[in-house]
Structure formats: C-alpha cells, structure tokens
Write a structure and sequence with these properties.
47% of the residues lie in helices and 15% in strands. It folds into two domains: 3-56; 68-215, Vaccinia Virus protein VP39 (Rossmann fold). It starts with a helix and ends in a 12-residue tail after the last helix. With 230 residues, the chain is an alpha/beta fold. Helix 3 (94-101) links the parallel strand 1 and strand 2. Bound molecules: S-adenosylmethionine (SAM). Residues 54, 57, 61, 63-66, 87, 89-91, 94-95, 109-112, 115, 138-140, 153, 178 line the site of S-adenosylmethionine (SAM). Residues 54, 57, 61, 63-66, 87, 89-91, 94-95, 109-112, 115, 138-140, 153, 178 line the site of S-adenosylmethionine. The chain crosses the membrane at residues 29-53. GO terms for molecular function: protein-lysine N-methyltransferase activity. This is ATP synthase subunit C lysine N-methyltransferase. It comes from Mastacembelus armatus (zig-zag eel).
Length: 230
C-alpha cells in the first residue's frame, strides 16, 4: 500500500468515527429532548387533571374560590352557631380555615389532592391544624350525618345533593349555600348580595318538605281511593 493510499484510508476511518460520534450525540440529544418534553407533559397532566376533572362530572363543580365577602357572609350567618362544620368541595380550604378561626371544628371534603395538601399546609401555617381536617374524597361517597353546619359553594343543578343532605343531616343542622341557592329548598334567610349572596336553610324544614313529597307520591290521593262504604 502506497503512502497516499494509507493516508486516504486513515482519513476515511477518522471521518467515519466522527460521523458515528455525531450521530451518537444527536441521538442522545434526541432522547434528552423526548424525555424532557414527555416528562413535562406528564407533570402538566398530573397538575392540571385534578382541576379539570370536577368540571367533567355529572354534577359539574369546578374550582372557583370564594371571595372574601362570601367568606364573611358565611361566618355572619353562622355567628350564633358552634360545633362541627363541613365545607363540601373545600377548594383551597379558605372557608374551613376561617370557620376554625371562629371556633368551629371544621372539615373539608375535596376531590383535588393538590388543593387538599395546600389546605393542610395553610391550616398548619395559620395555626388551626388541630381544629381542621381535610379529606381527599368524592362528596357522593361520604356521609355528612355528623355535621351540624354545612357549607357548599355549589352550582344550580344540585337536586341530587338536596336529597342526599335531606336524608343524612340531623334535624338541628343548618346548610349555607354560596353564590347559587338550592333548586327546590326554601331558605330561611339570605345575606350579602350579587355573587356574594349566601342562602341559609333549616334542615327541619327541608326534611319535612321531603317527607310530605314522599307521602304525596306514595299514599293514593283521596279522590283515587275507592270508597269502601258505598
Ligand atoms: C366552587 S369550588 C368551591 C371551593 C371552596 N368551597 C370555596 O368556597 O372557596 C367547588 C370545589 O368542589 C370540588 N369538587 C367538585 N366535585 C367534587 C366532588 N364530587 N367531591 C368533592 N369535591 C368536589 C372542586 O374541586 C372545587 O374545589
């Protein structure tokens, strides 16, 4: 082999080696980019899904935090009361924490784990962790029978929640609805105005309405009842 041929050969070999190195580092970069993009998408999904999921349910209850006027109205209508309180769909925990600061033993049930963890942290930071509890839970899968004060910042289509609460709550309980009234219940009072309005319901009243409704639908009406004496 001449000197020129061997020089050409080694030039080809080193060209080949640097091609391989370039292609290896390109594929490493490709893997890194895919990993970063894929990882970011998974993280974004994990963070966003719990916020979007409540809006896709049968009773759509998205996260919209209460205004400070709304929180004040809730505390105002419950001023004369004490004991246990639950915020159904407790969001970032602001109502539960405010209620605990006013002497209630307050709990929140919330579907979104990020919001529950944040609420627990906020309750600890604000010194009310002993009088608050936050549960990652679907409101349809728990009973609210132990609560004497119930708060919900709900949506207009909540007939099924009316039935659930009428069945579960003790007769002495009060229910406070924020921003939207319950569809068929008659409130005993309201406070605030516009988007900050709250409606207060007495459990004895809506339980007896439900009882009357059930009786009307199960007992035959006078005119339908055959008269056995004629
Ligand atoms: C309108 S926000 C009210 C938040 C809080 N109560 C407040 O007033 O600031 C309704 C909350 O209910 C939660 N939610 C929706 N569906 C739920 C369900 N099935 N069980 C528990 N929480 C639910 C949402 O994630 C959202 O945080």
């Amino acid at each position: 082999m001449s000197q020129t041929e061997s020089f050409l050969d080694s030039a080809q070999v080193s060209q080949c080696e640097s091609d391989v190195k370039r292609s290896k580092s390109r594929s490493r970069l490709g893997l890194l980019v895919t990993g970063v993009v894929g990882g970011s998408l998974v993280a974004l999904y994990a963070a966003a899904a719990p916020f979007v999921a409540p809006a896709l349910r049968k009773v759509c209850l998205p996260f919209v935090p209460a205004t400070s006027a709304q929180v004040e109205n809730v505390l105002k209508v419950l001023r004369a009361r004490s004991g246990t309180l639950v915020d159904i769909g407790s969001g970032d925990g602001r109502i539960v924490i405010a209620a605990a600061k006013h002497g209630f033993q307050a709990s929140g049930f919330e579907l979104n784990p990020w919001l529950v963890w944040y609420s627990r942290y906020k309750a600890w930071r604000e010194g009310v962790h002993r009088s608050t509890s936050f549960y990652i839970s679907d409101l349809w899968k728990v009973s609210f029978a132990q609560y004497s004060n119930v708060v919900i910042f709900g949506v207009p289509q909540m007939v099924s929640l009316e039935l659930k609460l009428a069945k579960e709550l003790p007769r002495t309980a009060k229910v406070v609805a924020c921003r939207f009234p319950f569809p068929t219940w008659v409130p005993e009072r309201t406070a605030g105005e516009g988007i900050d309005t709250v409606w207060v319901y007495d459990t004895r009243t809506f339980k007896s309405h439900l009882q009357q409704e059930v009786t009307r639908n199960t007992v035959p009406q006078q005119e339908d009842t055959p008269d056995l004496h004629t």
